[in-house]
Amino acid sequence: MVVMGGIVGAGIFINPYVVAQRVHSPVLILGVWVLGGIVALLGAFIYAELADRMPAVGGQYAYLREAIHPAAGFLYGWALLLVVQTGGMAAVTVTFARYFLELTGWNVSERWIVLGTLAFLTAVNCLGVKPGTRLQSVLMILKIAAIACLVVAGLFFAKNPQPLTHPILDRPFSLDLVTAIGAAMVPVLFSYGGWQTTNFIAAEIRDPRRNLVRALIFGVSAVILLYLLVSLVCVRVLGAEGLAQTTVPASTVMRIVAGPAGARLIALGIAISTIGFLSQSILTAPRVYFAMAADGLFFQAVARVSARTHVPVVAILMQSAWALVIAFTGRYEQILNFMIPIDFLFFGLSATCLFVFRHRDRAHPIADPGFRAPWHPVTTFAFILACWLVVANTLIKFPRNSLVGVFILLMGLPVYAFWAHRKSQASKTQEIASS
To answer: H/E/C letters for each residue in 163-190?
Structure first.
């Protein structure tokens, strides 16, 4: 449930229309979601092997630190805190607040809902990983129920279903078609992203070499099935042209099939999805900041673990506070524009760690190799290429916002130099004192 909760958010209810605006035939629309699912499954295989090799706190941070350089791990944690995770959390919290107010009709400020939501979920996750995962499991069940309602309504109660098999292509095969498919892959891969967050808490999962590997593979496979069914329903009820013309495809489908009550029901499902993603973010990402502090590369208070709940409470509170600042200042929309290339840059970079670890295996063979990503290195190369094509596409289409994200990332270099120097000086002082 934690794996699925980290992937399934509001995106699947909204992004189908973005895909339909970039490719315009039912076959291409569904084909892009299939292709995105294959990339996601390749990512699950890679991250399952990484988790099997290093079931350590911090996930990607630990892989980059051990395989490439501590600076690479630090830059990942830096970007996660200032751009990727907190920016996404801010946007998702505001999205939830808007849907919540629309459903309830309450005449209160959106900021109060944002504050209350973040405060509640932060408190739940500060109680420990078990209460957090229980809430995540409940929210995931409710999300699956909302998706099931949408799928059943679209498959069995649509009165005038649209054709699914023609036309196959919306234009002759050409470079223009290839670039259109590439553009459509951006929102698809963004929707599929999130499987990596479970690796952040690998050290807190019982028998992670067995349970986390299974959770990644089965969780991502289940999400692929859910996403394909939702996309199929959207195309079947609305058609390619109708899907491209609405910005709320799930609500439009339910309104056509079940009337206003159906539209309100799916709006509730979208609200639940956003709150589930937010709970997952609060639960997992602070483990990266905890690992950074434990390595002497961040404030030591962040590395403190509660004696009662055994979670890094300060790290959780710090992340939520920064997400709240972004949400209240309204600058989260700008951050969303430049978080995508940074996020997928590190997806691909983390996958390169597999080559380093496999090379070390040849020099120092191990008796129990555990899980290994199938068809490596071909599948690993394919995943890295897909991720970095997303980065290139976003840099080309949104250069100003993307370069702001790159600037924030590069600003982490002098910050790393400061913490690394401080750590070195502390080590020298300890050596002198011990001698």
So the answer is: CCCCCCCCCCCCHHHHHHHHHHHHHHHH
Helices then strands, each counted (H, E), the chain: 16, 0
85-104 vs 249-284: helix crossing angle, rounded to 10 = 130
**CA atoms 85, 87, 92, 97: torsion sign:** positive
Round to whole Å and give the CA distance between 19 and 53. 36
Instruction: Go through the chain and tell me how many residues it has.
Output: 435
Amino acid at 205: I
Name the H helices within 157-297: 175-192, 208-245, 249-284, 286-294
Torsion of CA 155, 161, 163, 169, to 10 degrees: -80
Distance CA 345, CA 340 (A): 8
Q: CA of 52: how far to CAs of 8, 33, 63, 214, in Å?
A: 24, 28, 11, 10
One-letter-per-residue 3-state SS of 368-384: CCCCCCCCCCHHHHHHH
* Alpha-carbon gap, residue 130 to 161, rounded angstroms: 44
Of 149, 137, 191, nearest to 3 by C-alpha is 137
- Per the listing, tokens 């078990």 go with 130
Q: For domain 2-363+399-425, give the CATH number.
A: 1.20.1740.10
Give the up-direction half-sphere exposure of residue 363: CA atoms within 13 A in the CB hemisphere: 6
| Residue 416 vs residues 151, 298, 319, 331, 348: alpha-carbon distances, Å | 48, 9, 19, 25, 21
pLDDT in tens, the chain (435 residues): 556 655 676 677 778 888 898 898 899 999 999 999 888 888 888 888 888 888 766 678 889 999 999 999 999 999 998 888 887 788 778 778 877 776 777 888 888 998 999 999 888 888 865 555 566 667 677 777 888 888 998 888 888 888 787 788 877 888 888 888 888 888 888 788 776 665 555 555 566 556 666 777 778 888 888 899 999 999 999 988 899 998 778 888 998 988 888 888 887 877 777 777 787 778 777 778 878 888 888 888 877 777 777 777 888 888 899 888 888 876 544 666 678 889 889 999 999 999 999 998 887 777 667 778 888 999 999 999 989 988 887 788 778 878 888 998 999 999 999 999 888 888 777 777 776
